[in-house]
Specification:
It is a single chain. With 180 residues, the protein is α/β, with parallel strands linked by helices. It has three helices and 19 strands. It has a single domain, classed as UDP N-Acetylglucosamine Acyltransferase, domain 1 (3 Solenoid). Helix content is 18%, strand content 29%. Strand 18 and strand 19 form a beta hairpin. Helix 1 runs antiparallel to helix 2. The protein starts with 6 loop residues before the first strand and ends with a strand.
């Protein structure tokens, strides 16, 4: 799965890993707003790694959690979904607006192969000082460069360079930004 090779999501080991993550997410998503330390501990145990000064606002959803690596000062707003069937790397100072969706998993286009239940997953990398607007979708295999803004509602199907504002469906560079 992590090698972007065909795999079966129904594999017993993967199913058990997802179930364990779902139990952690249930506790996180149903915690009281006053349980800040419990929430932070839940995220630290769920993610592969996470830096300091990070905040995730419930509800949050992911497949495994352990394939998410995040830097310092991460902010994830409500209702974010990360399908981390492959590595998702979030740099320092990343801001994810409400309803951002990050998908490493994908299915074969060929219908007969798709019916076998095989899936693939390609890693996603989001650089430092990136803001992803509300409702944006980040597709498998994408890299977003440092100091970049992705507009709300964008569907990012291809990598985006550093120091730009990009938006649309499909997402495209609109302009460059200073200090990028």
């Amino acid at each position: 799965m992590l090698a972007n090779q065909p795999y079966w999501a129904a594999d017993a080991e993967l199913t058990a890993m997802r179930l364990a993550a779902q139990h952690q997410l249930y506790r996180f998503n149903h915690s009281s707003p006053a349980q800040t330390e419990q929430r932070q501990a839940s995220v630290r145990s769920l993610f592969g790694s996470i830096g300091v000064n990070s905040e995730i606002i419930p509800p949050f959803h992911c497949d495994y959690g352990c394939h998410i690596r995040a830097g310092d000062n991460l902010y994830i707003n409500v209702n974010c979904t990360i399908l981390d069937c492959n590595w998702v790397t979030l740099g320092d100072d990343v801001l994810l607006a409400p309803n951002v969706q990050i998908y490493t998993a994908y299915h074969p286009v060929e219908p007969t192969l798709r019916q076998t239940g095989v899936e693939m997953a390609a890693p996603i990398t989001i650089g430092n000082n990136v803001w992803i607007g509300g409702g944006a979708i980040i597709c498998p295999g994408v890299t977003i460069g440092d100091h970049t803004t992705i507009g709300a509602g964008s569907v990012v199907t291809k990598s985006v360079p550093s120091g730009v504002v990009a938006a649309g469906n499909p997402c495209r560079v609109i302009r460059t930004v200073e200090n990028g």
